[in-house]
Amino acid sequence: MCGVVGLLLRDRSLDPRLGSMLVSMIQALDERGPDSSGIAVYSDHDGAGSLRQRRLRISLGSDDPVDWDGVQGMLAAKYGSDVDVEAFGAGTVVVTPEDLEKEVQALIAVTWPNVRVLATGRNLTVLKDTGRPSDTCTRYGVAAWEGYLAVAHTRMATESAVTVLHSHPFVPSRDLCVVHNGSFSNYATVRRQLIADGVQFDSDNDSEVAARYLAQRLSAGDDLEEATRWVMKEMDGFFTLVISTADEMSVVRDAIACKPGVVAVADGYVAVASEYRALAELPGIATAEIFEPQPEEVYTWSR
Amino acid sequence: MEPLSCDALGTRAVNHQLRALPAGSAAHVLHPRGRHNLAVGLSSQISVTIDGNAGYFLGGLSGASDGTGPDIVVNGFVGWSVGENLMGGSVRVHGSASQSAGSSARGGRIVIEGDASLRAGISLKGATLAIGGDAGAMSGFMAQSGLILIGGDAGHGLGDSLYEAVIYVAGSIASLGSDAVVEEMTDDDMLVVKELVEETGFDHIDPSGVTKVTSARQLYHFSTHNHGAY
């Protein structure tokens, strides 16, 4: 079991409520995934849009204790106001001009080899931590977060270890997030093929394979729906997947709908969750259109 | 009795209070908000109304082996496995049901006024499952005995590996599963459907236009000879 969550706001006046809506969803799915959790939030409303669009957010995390003050201090000393560094969740987020991305990542990799990049994106910030998801929400004040799109995952691990780096969402390319409830049986085969193509992995998690395969298809020119169809075609197993880009959110279930999923299309937002319980506290849910995604049908919503 | 509010009571507290009620009582459960396992394991003949949408296993394991049990009504929709392993009494859902409605139910009657999702009536063991709307793929899978009435259309793989349960479909059938066949409606079948239509109030169903699906009885016992059919 695991819990998946997706929340796309179409009414921008709801942006300040994204965090509190999200927390109500995650709390309801706590028992589906008590091991660990991950939350991805997309936001674009702080600071000047034009400046922000040229800057990249790098979310950092680790399975080992890290001197995050040291990481922040080193980056601040080296780059000054060019790079913003702030504590975020269990790790740190670095906001850097895009042209400094590779340099900043290389510096971190050399100086703090235990620190890993959880996500990069123009609008995206990712938090991952082990422990009860509802505790994680409280610890990091997730209810106060703002944004226009979020995906989250509550994990009950079956295929690989319970660590920060094994937690979803997987972010195989900029602003692309994948969360998965289910299991893939042929992931080792697909993983070998991807490694042969030069794809690098952060973990031995089966869901990461689907995420990186999806990213490979997207970079080959597929649109999100085509790429998702390739995942269904090539990967054997059970899944409800929630996928997000900076502008879209998708959900897809396997051929026999082995794993649950419920969608609410409401006034001002679209929400996806493993169970209706996770939708029950959302504003205006009583008048929302609620349905279950049909097997092997790709549903995509844009902002 | 005072309504039982899920905002104030945990699931076990709600179910304990329902179980303590003497036969003939009526109870209301408020604010279910999709909660699982409500009104499970009730054996006495009480009536329970759930005001709102319920989660998984609503009414499951209820009723007695003589077919008596509670009458449970849901003013909303329900999650997976409504009436799972029901022994007697009835569950009526005024909305739709998610997957595996009536799974393994041995007795009593489960009525879904809306649609039922995939695998409705899976492994049915004697209960009656009446669906006003459509039923999802693989409904009636390995159903052993009992009756399934589908007022709308049936999805793919209807009645796969069916044993002795009988399925009646008022609408179209996307496809039959392995070992399921369409059989001629007899006069007795017509009587059964007519009575069920009257009792459920599903008057959109015309008994004379119903299709009957039963087992072809070719796959009762596993044989490697039949490998290709599985």
Describe what is shown at a glance.
Helix content of chain A is 27%, strand content 32%. With 303 residues, chain A is of the alpha+beta class.
Strand composition percent of chain B: 15-25%
Helix content bin of chain A: 25-40%
Strand content of chain A: 25-35%
Number of strands of chain B: 11
Gross CATH architecture of chain B: 3 Solenoid
How would you spell out the order of helices and strands of chain A?
EHEHEHEEHEEHEEEHHHEEEEEE
Gross CATH architecture of the largest domain in chain A: 4-Layer Sandwich
Global shape of chain A: globular
Helix segment tally of chain B: 2
CATH class wording of chain B: Mainly Beta
Structural class of chain A: alpha+beta
Radius of gyration of chain B, CA atoms, in whole angstroms: 18 Å
Molecular shape of chain B: elongated
Would you identify the regions of chain B where 5 or more consecutive residues have pLDDT less than 50?
Answer: none
H and E string of chain B: EHEEEEEEEEEHE
Outline the structure in words.
The complex is a heterodimer of chains A (303) and B (230). Chain A is of the alpha+beta class and 303 residues long. Chain A folds into two domains: 215 residues, Aminohydrolase, N-terminal nucleophile (Ntn) domain (Glutamine Phosphoribosylpyrophosphate, subunit 1, domain 1), CATH 3.60.20.10; 76 residues, Alpha-Beta Plaits. Chain A has eight helices and 16 strands. In chain A, the strands form three sheets. Chain A has a seven-stranded antiparallel sheet, with helices on one face. Chain A has a five-stranded antiparallel sheet with strand order 9-10-11-12-16. In chain A, helix 6 packs across helix 7 and helix 7 packs across helix 8. Chain B has one domain: Pectate Lyase C-like (3 Solenoid). Chain B has an eleven-stranded mixed sheet, sandwiched between helices. Classes of the chains: A alpha+beta (303), B alpha/beta (230). At the A-B interface, loops of A face loops of B.
